[in-house]
Amino acid sequence: MNETLKLGLVLLLVCAISGGVLAVSNSITAPIIAEIEKEGSMGAFGEFFPEADDMVAVDEALLADIMSNNSFIKEIYEVKKGEEIIGYAFKTVSNGYGGDIVAVSGFNMDGTIAGIKVVEHGETPNLGGKIEEEPFRGSFTGKNSANELVPSEAPSADNEVLLISGATVSTKGVLAGINGAREAFVDNFLN
């Protein structure tokens, strides 16, 4: 019995030390990881707004209010050239066939979509994975944000984007997030 108690105490001590080391290493690396993720988002946003010289996160209270009504939205930035707001950039998370789809999108102040980019997904390579490629990405650019975007095999209307054949769930997953961003943009930022 005494030997069992000693082993239990040793195991408890080893677990406590291991937990402490993990907590310290997490507190050191968490801000670094968050900064790297932010830089990745900013780089993607820069593709849509090459003329921008600043991106500022929207007020936290406003973001919280928007997020309470829109589960797709994770981040929102004002895109500026000098003091002028030239657009808004959104980071969204939606569900696809293989799990979460993390996308960024940009909206110009004239109400058009500046572009989209899928930055993380678990979709099937060479099928659902086509959501991060052309011509799918390009089918969003220049579309009017006034109406909900819908998939089409041959997009021609101003609210139609390319449906990836054989990857309907992936296409609709991206659309859910982008339509969430579109709705937040129209309701909160478009004059």
Automatic annotation (TrEMBL):
Its main location: membrane. The modification FMN phosphoryl threonine is found at residue 168. GO terms for cellular component: plasma membrane. It comes from the Bacteria. It is found in: Cell membrane. It is a single-pass membrane protein. The complex is composed of six subunits: RnfA, RnfB, RnfC, RnfD, RnfE and RnfG. This is Ion-translocating oxidoreductase complex subunit G. It comes from Paratissierella segnis.
